[in-house]
Amino acid sequence: MLQTVETPGATHPAPSAGRILAASFVGTAIEFFDFYIYATATALVIGPVFFPSGAPGVQQLSAFATFAIAFIARPVGAALFGHFGDRVGRKATLVASLLIMGLSTVLIGCLPTYAAVGWWAPAALCILRCGQGIGFGGEWGGAALLAVENAPPGRRAWYGIFPQLGAPVGFILANLGFLALSFGLSAESFQSWGWRLPFLGSAALVGVGLYVRLKLTETPAFRAALTQARPERVPFATVVTRHGRALLIGTCAMVAVYAVFYLSTVFALGYGTGTLGYSRSTFLLFECIAVCFMALGIVVSGAAADRLGRRPVLLSGMAVTFLLGFLMGPMLGHAAGTGTWPPVLGFLCLSLLTMGWVFGPMGAVLPELFPTRVRYTGASVTYNLAGILGASGAPYIAQELAAYGGIGFVGLYLAGAAILSFLAVLAMRETADI
After folding, report:
1. 237-288 residue pLDDT tens
2. β partners of residue 13
């Protein structure tokens, strides 16, 4: 049965909880799929395809630099879409963010190579990466609000896990796609044209997401806010001037979440297939197995955050992330062919389980830090500023640290990120009861 949402002058049929959660989940799964296929391609082919050959590692570092561009563009997208999401509404903004992200992804699959057009190729790649970042910047906050602002009392963290589950599902779909190509194509065919197929195939997924989201209505919390006062004229300015402490704390709290994920996926994939000598298909299979533990962590932590509170769940996860930094060297440093692959897989599973544990409650925590009138902007900007600090440079920095002092130095980098986020959560108020 449909519920009804009362608004000034009209009664609007509201979609069921199942449709709301499906729309929140499906959209983020597609967005994360788009983002992850680029992340995977960065570790495997972007360097040789779009950049000239040079000193050892230069192509890979250039590819990681393009990976970082989208994270820099994401706060711009967060402020842009947050502005309209807080003034016009959640639905239209979510549709626009999905379209921009999807179009940018498909066009990346159509780009010519460096060998064909020279520096025009990486220049166009950088522009489209900006498009991906801007679209993604408006996606997560809107999806989280769609779930959380429709949640019944006492279940915001549980509803908030549905946009979070889009991350592991998108990741699995991306990796399974590349894994299938690894088995079905030769290395030459994969690098020549096969890597483009996941990018082009994203068009079909975007169509599914649009179909689901166009049937949504505005959230009850947003409608209620409109009855109380006019929207903020410039939501971003309000967030910075009146809610700067929440912005800073939320951003720092998310840094370790991003760091543990991208070190365990993008950097680990490049390190595993390069330095350690694992085949592409083997390491992609490892990653697919490990990301299932991430989904488990998200589900369990969402339930725990509603029962125990947000802070205890997050603090325990940050403590484990700190310990992971010291396990990275002993566990992830085993080369292929030595018969010691279980520690490698074990580290990936443990790190992504931990990431899911700290990522799950964030779907509720970041929106809860801000009032409804600026919540889209506040949650989105916080989430994406953390991406710059915790993710944009993580693969690049890790690559340099590994080259300089070995994998143990990368572990220390992860431990440092965990300390920063632990201190931020300590300074955060408990938001479960607001």
Report:
1. 999 999 999 999 999 999 999 999 989 988 898 888 888 888 888 888 999 8
2. 4
Domains of the chain: 14-427 (1.20.1250.20)
* The total number of residues written for the chain in this structure: 434
d(C-alpha 101, C-alpha 240), whole Å: 26
The distance of Cα 281 from the centroid of its chain, to the nearest Å, equals 23
Q: What CA–CA distance (Å, rounded) separates 253 from 250?
A: 5
CA distance 88 to 356: 32
Cross-strand bridge partners of residue 39: none
Which range among 208-217, 346-355, 396-405 has the greatest average pLDDT?
346-355
Please, where are the H alpha helices in 88-216?
A: 90-108, 114-117, 120-148, 156-184, 187-189, 196-213
Q: Is the pLDDT of residue 216 over 80?
A: no
Please give the Cα distance from 344 to 262 (Å, whole number): 16
Among left, alpha and beta (phi > 0; psi -120 to 50; other), residue 432 is: alpha
Query: CA of 119: how far to CAs of 128, 299, 320, 374, in Å?
Result: 15, 45, 44, 41
Give the Cα separation of 121 and 125 in Å (integer): 6
Supply the pTM of this predicted model.
0.85
Residue 257: how many CA atoms within 13 Å on its side-chain side?
Answer: 29
Q: Residue 71: phi, psi to the nearest 5?
A: -70, -35
- Decide: 30 and 169 in contact? Cβ < 8 Å: no
Which whole number is the average pLDDT over 5-34?
A: 69
Tokens at residue 314, please?
């997050």
| Separation of CA 42 from chain center | 16
The answer to whether the beta carbons of residues 35 and 132 sit under 8 Å apart is yes
- Alpha carbons 385 and 73: distance in angstroms, whole number: 10
The Cβ-side half-sphere exposure at 352, using a 13 Å CA radius, reads 27
pLDDT digits over 226-239, tens only?
A: 777 787 889 999 99
